[in-house]
Inverse folding.
């Protein structure tokens, strides 16, 4: 170190030796570069995993939404039918164990939304609702259940169901199971 030539005697300045200047200009070692590459690989890899799961969740939410819309549309069509048509066309079973199950055609308008509608199948089950004693029905109310199943992109099968009661006075509100 060399003493400064300024008027204050406390200031010292450092003078780098030629050997020290040479060491600082060499760059990174191989281990430092490999450690940085490893950290970047882990960060990018975990980002891709999170991104993939986010897209899977988005697809699942989209399918649940479309399934709900499809079933609501089917219940609105059912609301327009008469009691006689419901008794004839749905031919309700005696109870839940002997319900009449039928495939329902999904409206083709839902197939225009990517491949979501094409992955779905809808079934309708109908049976006479239990009477006041909880066992025998009085054949005045039919319990109708719509179920949509679909497969996700990761090959899991999911489903959504709505249930309603259709009586001689018409369709009651439907609710989600």
């Amino acid at each position: 170190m060399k003493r400064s030539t300024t008027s204050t005697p406390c200031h010292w300045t450092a003078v780098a030796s030629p050997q020290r200047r040479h060491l600082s200009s060499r760059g990174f070692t191989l281990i430092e570069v490999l450690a940085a590459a490893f950290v970047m690989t882990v960060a990018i890899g975990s980002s891709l995993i999170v991104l993939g799961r986010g897209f899977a969740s988005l697809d699942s939410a989209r399918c649940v939404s479309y399934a709900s819309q499809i079933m609501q549309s089917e219940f609105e069509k059912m609301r327009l039918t008469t009691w006689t048509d419901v008794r004839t066309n749905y031919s309700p079973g005696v109870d839940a164990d002997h319900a009449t199950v039928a495939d329902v055609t999904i409206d083709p308008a839902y197939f225009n939304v990517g491949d979501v509608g094409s992955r779905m199948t809808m079934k309708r089950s109908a049976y006479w609702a239990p009477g006041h004693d909880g066992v025998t029905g009085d054949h005045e109310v039919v319990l109708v259940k719509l179920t949509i199943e679909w497969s996700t992109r990761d090959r899991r099968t999911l489903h959504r169901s709505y249930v309603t009661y259709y009586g001689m006075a018409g369709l009651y509100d439907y609710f989600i199971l």
